[in-house]
Every structure is written in C-alpha cells, then in structure tokens.
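Hi support team,

I'm opening this ticket because the web form for multi-chain structure prediction keeps timing out on my end. I have pasted the exact lines I submitted so you can reproduce it. The total is 910 residues across two entries, so I didn't expect it to be a heavy job. Is there a limit I'm missing, or should I split the entries? Thanks in advance, R.K.
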Amino acid sequence: MSLKNISEKTLQLLLKNGAQQAQVISSHTLLEELQYENNDFTLLRSVEDQSCDLTAITEKKKGSYSVSRTDDHSLNEAVAKTIEMAKSAQEDEAHAIATEKDQVEKAYENFESGPKEADLDEMTKLIQHFVRDTHQKYPQIGLRTIGVKFIQSKIHYLNSHGIEVTSSKGYYSFSVMFNANEKEKSSSMDFDSLSFTEFDERIQNLLAPENFGDKFKHTISHLHAHKYDKSFTGKAIFMPKCWYTFVQMINGHLTTGPLLAGTSKLQGKIVEKVGSSLFHIESRPHSPLFAVPSIMTGEGIFTKELTIFDEGVLNTYLVDLYGRNKLGLKEVSNFASHLYMPAGKTSLEDMISDIEEGILIGRFSGGAPNSNGDFSGIAKNSFIIKDGKIAQPLSETMISGNLFDLTQEIYDTSAEVYQNGSFYFPYVATAGITIS
Amino acid sequence: MTTNNLNFLEELLRQSEGNSHYTELRLQKTRAQFLNLINGDLTSNQESESSGLSARSFINGGWGYSSSSLIHNLNSSEQREMANQLLERANNHGHFMSKAMQNPMDVKLPESSFQFIQKEGLYKGYASTKDQIDFLKSLHSFIKEKYSDLKSIQLILSFNELEKSLVNTMGSQAFHLLPRTALYLKFSMEKEGEVVSLLEPLSGNGRAQIFIKDPKEYEETIDTLYKRVKDKSEGIHATAGVKDLILAPAVTGILAHEAIGHPAEADLVKAGSVASQFLNKKVGSELVTMVDLAHTYNGEELPVPVYIDDEGVEGKDVTLIDKGVFKGYMNNRELASFYGHDPSGSARAYDYNDEPLIRMRNTMILPGESKLEEMISSIEDGYYFLQSSNGQADLTSEFMFGVTMGYEIKNGKLGRAIKDTTISGVAFDMLDTVDMVSDEMHISCSGFCGKKQRMIVSHGGPSLKCRLHVGGRS
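Hello R.K., no limit was hit. The queue was backed up. Here is the completed structure from your submission:
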C-alpha cells in the first residue's frame, strides 16, 4: 500500500468511527549508517521503517497514536485505539487540527529535496580520507567514533480539513567524537557534526585538515589543561556551537509548556527589549544555508521565515496549535529549527585582544537552568583569556550566570561563522559570567 | 505466540546460507505512552507501538545489521522472504565491513548460549487510557485542594515497554518483556517574582497500574515535595567552593551511573576512558563498593531485570569497585573476547532497528553502616544534596550534576534550603574522599540513559559523605 493510500484509508476510518477532526501522517524511512570506532570500521547498518501517526479529535477531546504496522488489520486496530484515547481525554476547546485559515505561509503539495539513495562508496571514502588526514596531521588525536548516515524520509500528510502534502527528503550526516592522547594523559572528548546533501567540494573543504584542524588543536592543547585558581566575574566569548545550546535554552521559555505552566521568564514580554541589539535570532527553515529544508510542522502548519529576537526585541513565542488557542495568540509559530544569527564585523582575534581577563567557552556541561534562567556548570573545551590572548586551557572550572542577563550583555559578534547544515552562528561576546 | 516467534526465528536462522561467524535475529515490539497534565489541562495524550525484525552478523571483526518494520505487513511466505533478505543483507554488510577495515581480525566471539523464556502473563494487562487520565486528574485535584498556593502543578505518567524474541547461531533463545512506568510530579511556586520548581520522579518495573491508586496514598510524597519547593522558594544561593557534602541516594545513583559507570563500559574503556588505567588499582575509599547488577539484589528483583542480553548472553553481575579497588568492566561478546573476560550480558538495544550496545542495567553503590543522622551531625559547614537534575561526565570521569534540592548543614544541623546549584569533580578523586556511607538504599529507574540510543536503566545507592566542588554565586 502506498503512503497516500495508507493516509487516505486511515483518515476515512477515523472519521467513520467517530472522529470529528483528524490527521494522518504516513511515513517511510531508509537509513544507511557507516560506523568507525577506535581506529577501524565496525558497523554497516541498514534500516527500513514505516509508520502511521494518527490524531483524532472528538467532542473537543484529543488522542494521538503511532503504529509501525500498516496492514489492514493493524490500521483498524490503530483507529479504534486512537478513538478510544480521544474519548478518554478531557474536553478542551483549544484542541484543533490545522485548517487553511491557520496557515501563515504558502502551501506545498509536493516537496522533494536531496539525494534519493545512499552512495556507500562516497560514505566510505569520506571516513577513510578524514581518518588518513587526521592521523597524518594530528597524530595525538584519537578518533573515537565517526558516523556517516544517509537518511531518506518520505511523508504523506493528510487531514480532515483538506490539507494534503507529500514530501521526500534525503540527506547525509557526518559526526565525529574525538580526544587527544599523550602517554597516559587523555583530554576531554569533543565532537562535531554536519549535515549535507552532496559529496562536493564544500564538504571536502569543511572536513579538510586546514579547516577542521583548529578543533583538533584546541583538543590537543587540553592535554595540558588545568584549573584556573582565581574567581572573577567578567567577559566571555562563546564559541558558536556553545552559544547555540544557550539560545536553545532561551527558546525553551517561548514554548507552549512553560507558557501554560506560567514558568516562562519571557511570558508577556512580546515586543519588549529582552536583549542587546546584537541578540538577533531568526528561524530560516527554507534557507539554502541549511542542508534539509523544513516545510511543515507535525501539525500540518507550513513553516515560514521567522524573526524570534529582532535586534534584542522579543518578536514571537514558539507555540503549537494548542498553545496558540489556549493562550489566545494569533499564529502558530513553533518554528525553532534552522536557527540563524547574523555575523558581526569584528574578527575573533580582535574580540579576544579586547579582553583583559575573561573566558572563551567551547562547551557547557551543566544542569538545565532553573525557571529564572540561572545556570551553572563546567566550562569544557574552554580557555582563559588574559591580556588579550588565549592564556590557558581549562579543566574543572565552573561557570555560572543568568541566561537572560547574558543576552542583555552581548557587546560583539564575530565576522567568523560556524555553519554545520543545521544552524548558522558567529562567536558571541558577552559579560557577566562568573568563573569559580 | 512466544513459542511461535522463536520457532519462526530458529527456522529462518537454520535455513540461512550465510557464512558469518555469528548471527542473531531479534523480533521486537516497543511501546510508549506519555500523558502530561499541566495545571489540570491534558496537553499530551500520546501512545506509540513500533515493531520489526533485525538481523546482525559478525564477519572478521566487522558487523552487518539490517532491519525492517515492514515484515508485519506481509503474509507468512512473504515474511520468510523478507527475513531471508535481512539475513543476507546483514551478511553482505559484514563482508563489506571486513573489507573496509584496515585491520580485519580473526576474532572469535566467546562461545556461550543461554535460554530465557519469561513466563507469559507475568505482568498485568495494560491500564486503559481512561483510568490513567482519571487518575492524573484526581491526583491534580487532590494536590490543588491541599496546596492552592502552588503556581503550577505538572503531572506526567510515562510508560515504556520492550518486548523481545531473540535467537542466535550459538543456540541462545530469549523471550522477555521489560516494562517501566514513571510518574513525575513537578510543583512550581512564585515568591517575590521568582519562580522555583522541583520535580519528584517515582518509578518502577511494571505497567501504569502500579501507580494508579487513591491520591491519598501519595500524600506523604506530595507533602514532602510541597515543603521542599516552599523551602526552596525561601532558599539561599550556595556558596561556591570545595565543600563537605552528603549526597542522598538519588544523587549517589546518578553519580554512580554517569561518572563511574560509563567510563567502565568496555567500549569506552577501549576508547581510552580513565578506567582503562585502573584495573585492580585502588580508586577510592575502602567504604566504596559499586556494582552493575543484572537482575537481583538481596533476593529481590531489581527495577531493570536483565536475565539475558541481546546477544543471547546470560545477565551476570559485574563488580566495578570492590572496597575501593577497581575490578572490572561491563562488556559485550566482542569486547569480552578483546579483553579476555567473561561476557557480562550487558549488550542491549532500545528498539528493533537499534544495534545492541554495552549498557548499564542496575548500577549502584552498596550501602555501608553509618546512620544518616550521624553523617549530618559530623559536618560543621557543608550541604545535604537531595535531588539532582541532569548529569554529564566524560571519559576522564570529570562530571557535573545539577542539584535541584538541598539544605545547608551548619554545626551538624540542617539549615536553610538552597536554590539550584551544580556539583562537579573527578569521580575517581572524589571516591577517595568518601568517609561515611549510610545503611539505607534507594533505587530509581525514572530516567533514560542516552548513548547513541536511549535505554531503560536503574541506579541508586545509599547516602555518601564526601568532598566536592559546589557552584555558587560567591
């Protein structure tokens, strides 16, 4: 049975069995994964998955069920289960299935992107060349795990309000986890990843020693990392990957759950200035900067380019259909992927030279910030900056601060950007980080 | 059904013409349910079931894996055809790997077989969605009525279950279910514009009905959680620095899992974890004994009982640290062979399309003889940490955990509550500072371990008195 047939048949069954509104997402996924561990290839994995996700609303009650079996008997059972789940729920006016009126962006009917099948030879060569170059140029680096995956995902979305979309997306992902070793000394692990659609020059360049090498040099320098004995509160430069994790934590305050619970620090702050004018974050789901476009949410809402923080001003929450209705908002806006922060004009070198005493933060290993945005944790893969220069790789060094104070204190962003196919961020300089 | 599955898999394996050194077939169903009630509104009412067949082959040191969920959509002859295709692909992938390898090895996996067929009907049927939602609503009403000053009440009921049938070319056979349910209570309170939150996770081996009770039966838990979140709202920030601490069992458990357990997994040992230097060496105080137990402790079944793993190996206890001396690793067949150890039965996969990885099962530091009261009274200036949020550790055993609930200890007595903070250190250094271990024991299976795939695990232990770095504002 084709995905379209599965969706159509299941939707009809849901409506026939008592659903007043319903949606069905039928999907088929192929995955090929090549894995390299501790100096050799270890695994080639092929996966073929099919699934059918059903959602029904009846008498303002909602239930969602997902099943991987899509034969007639299993779909009948899944429909009965979904209806039973919906009937068991509580009435809530806010439950909804997407309609044309809910759309904030143009609709797609068919969407295709990326390769349709895996190129196993290229996947193998990518790993072989990366390993060869790394071993030649950086013999102290231990490549603990390298994974190259090909994923092809086909989806057919159909709902009772006539929204129907077919999409097919293919892409590759590369991930590497590494550390440095010298006699009995080992550094902390670091990792990196990128997504792409072609084995072209851009990917070769990104993974070439002259580009990837800085990450290895950082890691090698951490063989001699030690604790910074002095406590101070001062300036910090966040490396792009680390800043991205902080932005995700900030964005968490804009989602339906914390807003409904009343625990969001950003509640009621739409159009208020919550950060410095350099704190500018966009979601660009269709941009060619990213490997895999996102065209639609799981609720059948077509994504749009969205400015989340507009030069420090909070422009929107990131709510789903339920959150929009429950909170009385205008639009569905849960498009928080494909994040983009514009580059600045200052070089990283100049940003560092401007700091008398501060920290360059590569990775944050910390507890989830509390509701007020207070965080503390260890600065991993990080360096002390002293008198305008990188002075010391750090270990066992705790940093603390407040997410929302950090955004207010941003005073510079770098000309250099990091883009890995999933996000696009510069280095970000801010103040108010306590090192202890 | 169990016997049918195993007969079907055995027949397929016998008929396969592969030339692998080892092959396994696993038929698996994974169920999950998630209900989320925020301030009385049911924001999530979701359930899923995924199932499929996987084949995995080992050839000259390379692994090939192939799986499909489509097998269930087919009639029996088509099922056989697809299963044979999966076996053939796994075999071909194994060959591809052995050719791609720089150093293909003539590795022989340890020959061992084990049969474990779990008694059917061991677990009661599934609780209905209605009963679960009604329970959450009545629990919410009970809490709301008793404590109306809470800013928000969030209740989550989360159920996961792995059902596996497995055969391999060494003659192992397995059928078993691993159900886990967790009930999370999260209270938030606002004081002077600041919101504080605290989560209490309850968990156990079994389906949702293990928690569906009269809300009054949770009164003690609710009262304690309310008192703690109220104390926390009036709390102070911890003072930064190296402090004398008492870690309650929930914190001890996450420490055992993240900071000591992971570096002691043989794949991470091979990757260069700090534990690779420590075999049979003293790594901590003689008061510390740490184990990863397969299924039973003191005659009672543990929350994550693993009688057989996904390579058909009998689940065996692993003593990681014995009275302060590092004693062993958790492994799979391949790394048991590499290190010349016995296989521990620690290779587990979360879903049918996941390959087995070395995973912890029930990881804990064993209790000592001290009384908690004596431990508190022995500290002049320190903290008692009760609850942690997430934790992370790396191969050097440097770790960090968020602490979401704790009290200061002044002159041997508990003082004011503290706001969220963080503790960090190097686990194998910290173990040396342990000078008291309580006689209590608490085990939790509320979280997931994430190591490429998610996995149901449990961890726990007693209270530990030790010295660690506390994050703070001054």
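A quick check on our side: The CA atoms of residues 240 and 472 of chain B lie 4 Å apart. Let us know if the file doesn't open in your viewer.
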